[in-house]
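Posting for a labmate who doesn't have an account.
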Amino acid sequence: MSWILRGLLALAAGCAAAAPEPAVGWPAVTVGQAEQSAAPALWADAEGVMLAWVGADETGIHQDARTIIPGGLTAAVVLPLPPTRPYGQQLSAAAGSDRHLLWLDADAEGQNRLYAAVITGALAVKRGPTPVSAQITRRYAILPNGDGTLWVVSGGGLAAEPGLYAHFLDPAGRPRQENPAPIVTNADWPSFIQWGDGAAELFWRQPSDGTVKHAPFAVETGTLGSPAPLTTLNLAAGDRLDNLSAARDHTHGYLFANITHADGERETRFAGGEAGAADWGEMRRLGIAVTTDHTFAVSFNAGAVMAAGTGARWLSLAAPAAGDFESLPVAVMAGDDLGIVYFQGGQPAGFQIIAPDANLIGTPALQADRERFLYLAWAQPTAAGTAALRLASLRLAGWLPG
């Protein structure tokens, strides 16, 4: 990790870092320490949780993993995946209890590529590292198919001519021979939505003019239908787009853009519209107003949720959960507090604080399992200049000793 990131972590920790652990609204556990600002990669189901992150010690940089199962934490494992500067990890279901691990790293020429491995439930590497992309790769989005296979769309190519490329992994982590041509050009920041009928849709930003476009994505072939504009995401001079995410509830789709301004201030913009709508309106700053004397009913094992609507309590670092939900849960920072805002019908409808005074500098991660337990992961800055990698879930009440 660079000295800049170490300094940011230490600054974010501030004087409050003397406390051993911040209070949280759900049972929580620290799974590791790392020099990273983003949450660990996360995959959860009713049998357990797998997490992966980039660790470092006197031996150098390495990729680490750990599981939480009924009975507690297993030991952290250094994965035998030779690293250079890995980042951007994601986990997804493979065959049986295996998991796909994907990440970005430099190749022998120092150019970023997408890599994959298959990790067993016992944290053994069954296959990998396997090169997935043949071109310079800056970011990627995944689309699990429910049978252990996985579509990945990567954004990359020449910086002046970015495009999106489709890749397919089978349940054993073997990539299919890819089409060397991009599926769409003048495109970056890919993200997927899979609708309730199984139809998949790909979203991306067009760098030339900021238009956010979308198109049907054929899961049989990895090809795109006709692209169409949906909204516009304009950036001011000095603004940095940190990520762009698409997600949905039963009736509406949503886009979330996390932006850092030149002065270091962060904000999230969002747009939402009915499934099939041709225009989702202008992307606007995400803010809420909370009604503390009313609750909002959710279909998750999440505890009490306060009613909320649109307001001026500004949110940042949004990370939506993927899935088929009546209300969409999105992890957010509300000031210094880490919480979850629930969207329904195109607007914020509920809010709960999970970790007060978390003061994050990187994006959290949120996932739901089939029994509707939510799992929230984040990197908590500490005074030592590292981050405590934390996981919170009501599911942990029945898994952790004591």
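Reply:
Got it, the structure tokens are right above this. Residues 1-22 have pLDDT under 50 and may be disordered.
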